Amino acid sequence: MVKDFSWLRAEPHGIYIVPASCWIDPAQPVDSALITHGHADHARGGHGTVMATPATLAIMALRYGDQALARTIEYGERLRLPGGVDATFLPAGHVLGSAQILLEHAGERILVTGDYKRRRDPTCPPFTAVPCDILVTEATFALPVFRHPPVEHEIARLIDARAANPNRCLLLGAYALGKAQRIIAELRLAGYSDPIWLHGALERMCRLYEAFGASLGELRLVSEARKDDLAGQIVLCPPGSLNDRWSRRLPDPLTAMASGWMRVRQRARQRNVELPLIISDHADWDELTGTIDEIDPVETWITHGREDALIRWCALHGRRARALALAGYDDEDD
């Protein structure tokens, strides 16, 4: 039987499941949407029916208010969509609640991975590899230069920098959803038991993570501290607050940032980052190519990122691949 996969269509503003009249991570309001995870470039408000994991729905409620018609989908649960399409949500390992969506229709299997990583993360379940005919993969860090070091190495650098600068505040920029909570959890696993101080913009998401079982230890708000309290302490803030007026109240801050983009020195210099930490919530080059090898799809569809480099790798390894022209995605989460 010839497989043509014409029932799944990539449109500029999302992936459209034709028989089900349903979208995956649409960039504009639609009647029916499957959402892979809660980052703003994938989860937007204003949809009719929203189907996602419990944590993703909670994140969307925190950011946009309760969704009018929300349907909770647990990992491993098979959802029957209109038109005879089955959708199964599987862990993506990206952030809390993140999911891949396995679509099955007419004897064909398409795995839409959303954003994912293959590293251990104490705040979310690990990526689950499943066989499929078509693998839809991101390409955020799809260049050989992006090979992320072990997260334990970068956390050790953070702790060492704090110890070496007892009179300075160590100010760490980390995105509010996923990155901040992962860093806190990794610090706890490394034995760091002191209070961790937060910019107010991070508190609600950290509390949501705790409500879903994340162990983050003692967290305090910078707004409740005296300036002298913060000398020698680790403070987390959104990346946009690293060099703004808010940071001026801190005692001689040593600026750090956690991101896969910290591999690029120019990005660190642009943000005046003294301690760049290469900690990513996306797969690196070896993990992207390794995932394709492991899943071994008939064809790989590649989106948002370095599509050309990954398509070239697939061609060199005898694999069929093509780019999807999806708009509206960025690196908000890394």
TrEMBL record:
Residue span, Metallo-beta-lactamase domain: 12-175
SUPFAM superfamilies from the UniProt entry: Metallo-hydrolase/oxidoreductase
Source superkingdom: Bacteria
Record-given protein name: Putative mRNA 3-end processing factor
Any one GO molecular function term: RNA endonuclease activity
Organism: Edaphosphingomonas laterariae
InterPro entries documented for this protein: MBL, Metallo-B-lactamas, RibonucZ/Hydroxyglut_hydro, Xnuc_lig_assoc
